[in-house]
Amino acid sequence: MTGYGSDPFGTSAVQNLRIDVYLPAFRVSGLTATRFTRVADIVNQLASTHLVIEQATVSEYADPTATLGAHQVLVTVDHILFVVAPDVDVAARPEMRIPKRAVRAQLGLPPFRVTGLVHIPQGSRPVDGLLNAADRFLAMTDVTVTSGAHPELERHVAAVAVQRARVQVLLVGDDERPDQLLAEVLDQQTAESWLPKPAEKPGEG
């Protein structure tokens, strides 16, 4: 049998992939062992409470000189804001392709703002792709990462995996009302769980 064999998800042998893991105060860069080749799969299919990173470099946003190297670092998955895997291919595999449309969205994960494309099934509203999904981490492509507190951390990457539960503010660019916070079209309980603090509308403040 050729191609991806009997595995419908196309996983491969374990390999070491270079990743950058962003936390509220730290960035951890290094290698992680995984069978997956898409950044969202790497973290969504993780069974452990910690992500193991080998040959790691730990950087502190508040003090760029406080960089630490370590043979191995364990990162608590619950505290991950988003993950970048610079070397992976972001193209969808043909046998797994589901007709989708790209929605430009902006996610607030203090101290970062992540702007890029979310791909949702045709016929669905952006809210379905952003909230009504089982995966813990949301895949985004064509991404720009910025930080008002740390402008030197700005970067453009092909893809990231964002932890949904860490997002405080969500803005979507092509809904019926593109200037409207998603929280305003959700039920109160969902909005409160995603927006623990009152958020200003664009242009206010």
Please characterize this protein's 3D structure.
- This protein has 205 residues and is mostly beta strands.
- It folds into two domains: 70 residues, Roll (SH3 type barrels), CATH 2.30.30.100; 95 residues, SH3 type barrels (Roll), CATH 2.30.30.
- It has three helices and ten strands; from the N terminus they run ββαβββββαβββα.
- A ten-stranded antiparallel beta sheet has the order 4-3-2-1-5-9-8-7-6-10.
- A hairpin with a 3-residue loop joins β1 and β2.
- The N terminus is likely disordered.
Please name the defining characteristics of this protein:
SH3 type barrels, single chain, mainly beta, 205 residues, disordered N terminus, ten-stranded antiparallel β-sheet, 9% helix, 3 helices, 43% strand
- Cα distance spanning the termini: 60 Å
CATH topology of the largest domain: SH3 type barrels
Q: Tell me the number of structural domains.
A: 2
Q: Which structural class best describes the helix and strand composition?
A: mainly beta
CATH level-1 class of the largest domain: Mainly Beta
Please indicate the percent range of residues in DSSP E strands (runs of 2 or more).
35-45%
Mean pLDDT: 80
Could you give the count of β-strands?
10
Query: In angstroms, what is the radius of gyration?
Result: 18 Å
Second CATH tier, the architecture of the largest domain: Roll
The stretches of 5 or more residues where confidence is low (pLDDT under 50) are: 1-10, 176-186, 194-199
